[in-house]
Structure formats: structure tokens, C-alpha cells
Amino acid sequence: MAPTVPSAAKSASPSQPSGKSEVADLKQQLRQLAGSRAPDADDQRRDVFKRVISCMTAGIDVSAAFGEMVLCSATSDVVTKKMCYLYVGAHARAHPDLALLTINFLQRDCRDQDPTIRGLALRSLCSLRVPNLVEYLVTPLTTGLKDPSAYVRMIAAVGAAKLYHISATACIDADLPASLKALMLSDPDAQVVANCLHALQEIWTLEAANSEAAAREIETLYSKPVVFYLLNKIKDFSEWAQCLVLELASKFLPSDNNEIFDIMNLLEDRLQHANGAVVLSTIKVFLHLTMSMTDVHQQVYERIKAPLLTLVGAGSPEQSYSVLCHLHLLVMRAPMLFSSDYKSFYCQFSDPSYVKKLKLEMLTAIANESNTYEIVILDVFSPVTELCEYAGNVDVPIARESIRAVGKIALQQYDVNAIVDRLLQFLEMDKDYVTAETLVLVKDLLRKYPQWSHDCIAVVGNISSKNIQEPKGKAALIWMLGEYSQDMHDAPYFLESLVENWDEEHSPEVRLHLLTAVMKCFFKRPPETQKALGATLAAGLSDTHQDVHDRALFYYRLLQYDPAVAERVVNPPKQALSVFADTQSSEMKDRIFDEFNSLSVVYQKPSYMFTDKEHRGPFEYAEDLTNLAVGAEAQENVISAQRYQENDNDLLLSTSDKEDNGTRASNGSATSTYNAPSDLIGSSLISSQAPAETSLINTGGPTYSSQSNFSLDDLLGLGVTEAPVPPPPPALTLNSKPVLDPGTFQRKWGQLALALTQECSLSPQGAASLMNPQSLIRHMQSNYIQCIASGGQPPNYKFFFYAQKDGATAFFLVECIVNTASATAQLKIKADDGTAAEAFSTLFQSALSNFGLS
Fold it and tell me: How far apart are the C-alpha atoms of 293 and 561, rounded to whole Å?
């Protein structure tokens, strides 16, 4: 049988790739279609362009087809033109040499009869962003601003702002801002007016840093003729443009109250707008204009309640969350005005968790004496509604937040009888997280309302620590056992069982609370707690966690010195707390209010804290003389003192970061464990039968155990022959007038290795003096140590110091982070002369410790 003859391969069509690479095949097809006049040539071009855009979207480099794409741009098909412009805009910036090929056909299209093509070509021409092609942009932009088509004028207005970013000089020399201003005040099309306004604001804001004329032009934008002209046309604007005009109006300074009322009358109907952004922008105008008119300002709050509550219930969850954030800010400023609308903040089962959480915060904020029982008792603790229902919710974070909300409301009110009763009912629920959160709140309640101790302790005393897994809940329970051990019959035995399981407790927080609780219980019920205290101190002294060991050692020394002093330290007379510290300062809230209708309200922090480069990650800056590396990896940067004080919250360190730093710093010096003396474990701390026996404590005076082992005696300095003191290092003298510019500081910090990392203490007077950080800078200058950068806000401040060794070129560089709450400073020292780093550290710490004492 004869073999089958293979069929001839079909010829490749322009839309099908050949056996070559796909990009090469596309180039070939584009080249074939470049001069084609076939009837279906436009359709074929469109198909090939779609494939090119598809490859570009997939990340394939199709820049090799740039020339062929330009050749095929001669078509009247608008869709093909759009794809060609998209391709050119994507590759022109990366290939500026090829971008020159596009100038001719783009300029030609800018003169096309079709206004759509003219606008698209002008937009693409301005989107090339190639500095060498600036000269080709000015004429099309000038012509476009005078184009009879509103679409082209709109594109040209935005193109002027793009030109400014490419070349500010070319934009100003061409007098484009003046043309934009004239067009804004005369053009009949609302979108053209809005684009001109946006472009002018962008250009003049950036130019104002270098030109007083630009600063004056910005002021003209906020003048009465311009503001009222735009407000009278506001109904013609798009929603985006309305927000732009309203933002401009919020910065207008009226000359009298009549102008304020005129603006509010013009914008009254904007409060019923369907778009949430327009409503919020209008509210911002109302609030800012009436800030100096107290009575009217209160009426504005009443007027804006309904629109805001309508927006919360309508629209997407994201919009509801954004509006709720703004409502929360207003509630914090005027809680009474919203107290009657608490039912609007009840959670719906379909609400996302983030909306529910914010609604719980709203209920907490508006709770007062008039509505507490409606919020908490009737609706919260009913078996079928609100917070008690949430406490058993499958959404654990919401359940936690609901319990915290009840506790916060209780801490705000005077009449808390029913609230405390209901809160204690949570302890009967067999859920670990409910019990833990409730115990934390009960602890806070007892700190503010000690008179409730008997009722609370009666319930808490029935809880077993084995049923509590969360450290914060167990710590709260232990605190209550120590604080009210005289009222709890089984408290010493309960604590003793916890001490026996010391090694199984992995949380340092729980172990610290246990140390203090056992000490408190010992002074209230010594015979029953004596054994537990010895075991607790022994375990604490052998603990590998530095804080636990230090506290145990501190208590041990106190007991050896004088038990009366120890009792005054550990168990002093306490007063009920009147208020708990606010997590956010009033100044910060005012700054957020000034930025109403922005992300600042959603993030609950001013914009400079999340937009400036100084606050984008770990000190990654790359501008100015302040490009100072501050990390051991030489990748973190710092800014100058002047700029740092403007952007101060970058220095706020989280507690976990501090603990990590402290752990790393202490690992090298606390690697060995400490053996407790035998009298802590086997002998009595206080013997009522034989006072003269060996013990840690003698109530008549600070006597010491004769059977204490040598290692602990050495640690405590009890009667051990002191080792000879090594001779002091040679005294270090500093140059009284060191000179170091920021650039050199940056380079040195990046090149030098870290010589020392230490922590030192400030005097209480010094910590208090840091309310004015400049006082520390002046103090260190008096010790020949200069500051090159500083910043921060209470309680955290960061300083960068430098000093120079006298008679030498060696410099010392210091990063100093001060926490005024704990009166401590963390130091990182780098030095040209590493051998003198220790001496400089001693000198620096000496100067720091004397701060505030003189």
C-alpha cells in the first residue's frame, strides 16, 4: 500500500503566528499591513494590535515592534488609534530614543478633524513624559486650550499639569497657568472648568515654594469672586468636580457672617446628594465655616445627622465604614448630639466585622446617663439582642469587642450597678475568650470602683485558672487574688498551686503578676503564704526572662533590707482611679478634624503620618541633605532636625519593638541562671516560734541569712570581699567645636560598624524637661556633643548626636531614643576610633544623667 501523501500546510494568515517567535511574527504582520490598502486592512490591523496589547499586558517585551506600530498608526479607526496610543505611552518612557518616531503622527493627529482623535492624540503626546520632547508639547497644548471641542480643552488642561511635572520652566515660560485661569473663568463647559481648577491648584501649589507670585495666585483661587463663581455652577459639575470645588470652598475665609450663610444656602441641597463624597465634602464646608460661631456650629451638627445616618444605612459596606469613621470623629467632639440616635448604630447580621467593630465603638462613645440602660441593659444584655448576644457570637473578635464595649461604658458612668451585675454574668459562659476579656474588665472596674470588690470577688473566687488559657485573663485573675487576698479565703492556696506550675507558664506577664500577687498576699496573710513566697522568689531568680528575674531580685533585696519598706513599696495605700488615659491626644483629634473627608479620618491619624516619605516603612528616604542612614544595616535613614519636628510621629516605637530590642540587648549579659539560696526553699521566711532562726526577713532589722550560698551573696554584695577595681581608662576629651555636615554623617553612619548598644536612665527632672526637646540639645551642646537631627512627640523622642575627639579627626555618632514615660534612653554608638567608644559612652551617659538637675 502506497504511503499517504501529507497535505500541504496552510499559509499563515496575518492573524496567525508563524513558526518564529511571537514578537517576530507580530512585527512581520505589522510590516505587511503598514502600506496595505486592502478592504479588510483595518480589521486585520485591529486584530494584530489586540495581540500586541495582549502580549504587553502579559509582561512580554514587545518594544521591538515599536517602529512597525508607528507605521501602522495611519488609520481612521478610533479603536486602533486608542490601542496604538496605549502602546506608545507604555514604551516611550523606557525607550526615549524610539519615542521621537511618534512625534510626527501624534502632532498630525492633534490636527485631525475628529475631536475624539485630537483629544486622544494630545493626551498621548503629554503622556510620553520624555524631557527631550518638551519642545513638541507646548504648541499642541496652547492650541488645545483654544480648541472648539470641550473634550480637547479638557484634555489640554490636564496636559498642562503633566507638562509642568516634566519641565516646570517650559510650562511657566509658555504662560500656560494664565491661560488655564482665563479658561476656568470663561469656559461654558463645567468639566473643562474643573480640570483647569485642578491643574492650577497642582501647578501653583508646587510653584509656591519657589515663587511669591505663585503664592499670590493661590490666594486668588480662595478669593470671594472665584469661590462664589464656582459654587453658583456647582450643579453643573460632575461628582468628582463638585468635591474639588467644595474642598476649595472649605478653605475660603469669609469676611462676615452673611457670606457664611450665603454659602450654606447655596450648598443646602448638596446634603441630599446621592453620592457620599459630595455629602461629606459639603459637611466639611459647613463645619469649617462655622467653627467660630458656636451656636450655628451646634445647629450644623443637628442638620448633618440625618444625611450621615442615611449614608450609613445605604450603599456598600465600604461606604458605610467610611461614613461611620467620620461620624465617630463627630461623636467624639459632640457626643450628646448623637446620644438619642443610638439605635442607628445597632449591628446588622449582614454587616462585615469591621463595620460591626466601629458601631460598637460608636455605642461606647455616645453612652451617657440618659441612654446607658437602653444601650446596655435593655438592648445589650437581653438574651436575644445586642452586646450580650454578641458575646456568644461565632465571630470571636466581635465577641471580644462587645465585652470591651460594656466595660468601657461601665467605666464612663456613675450608676453601674446593673452593668456590673450583667458583666459578671459573662463569667458564667463556658468560653475562654469571654472569661479572659471579662476578667480584664473586672480588674479595671475594681481599680475605679473598689466598693464593688465583695460582689466581684465572690464570683471571681469560683473561677479556676485551669479554665483560663489567655495570659491577659490569667494575669487579671492573679492581680485580683493578690489585691484582695484578705477577702478570698483560698487565695494563698490558689497562688501556691500556680507557683507549683511555674515552669509550665510561658507568659512573662503572668509570671510578673504572680510575683507581685504572692508578695501582696504575704503581707496580708504571712503564715499561709510563707512557703509560696519562698518558692516564687526562687523560681523568679532562676527565670531566664530578664524582667522576671529583675523583679524577683528586687523583691528579695527589699525583704532583706527591711520588710516594712517592702510592704510600703509592694502594697501601698491605693486611691480609686478617676479616669483612664486616653489613647489619642486632643491635639491629634483636632488635626484629624482639620482633615475631614480624607483618609486621615479612616486611619485615625494625620495625613503626614502615612503620606510623607519619612513614614513609608523603616526610614527609607532619598532626598535632601537629610539622607542619613541610621540602622545597623545602613538602609534606614533620618531627616533633618527642622523637618523631623514637623513629622514627629515617625519616632513612635511599638511595645513589641522595644521588647525585642531589650531582649537582644540583654541576651548577652543575662545568659546564666541564678541559684536561689537554700533558705528561700527550705527555711521559713518569718518564724513566729523562733525569731532568731535563719530567715530572709527579721522584723527588727535588715539581717541576712548566714546559710546563703556564695553565688547569691556575691550577687547581692553581702559580706563578700570585693574584687580589685580595675584602673579607670584614660580620660576622653572632646573637641569643643566639632564640625560635621549631614552628608558626611550619613556616609559615616552607613560605613561604621555598631560599637555599642546600651540602655541608660534619665533623672525624673530630665524626663520632665523633655517637654521641650531643645533643652536636651542645649544641654548636650554644653558638654561638646552636638545634635544633627531630632524629632518625636511624647513620650518618645529620637536624637542623633555627634562629637569629635579632641586633637584627632575621630568622630563619635550616637542614635538616642528617649522614652519619657519610663525615663530611659536607648543608645547606639558608632565611632571612628572603636577603642574609645566605651569611654565616650561613659561620658555621654554622664551628661545625659545630669540633664535636668541643674
Answer: 64
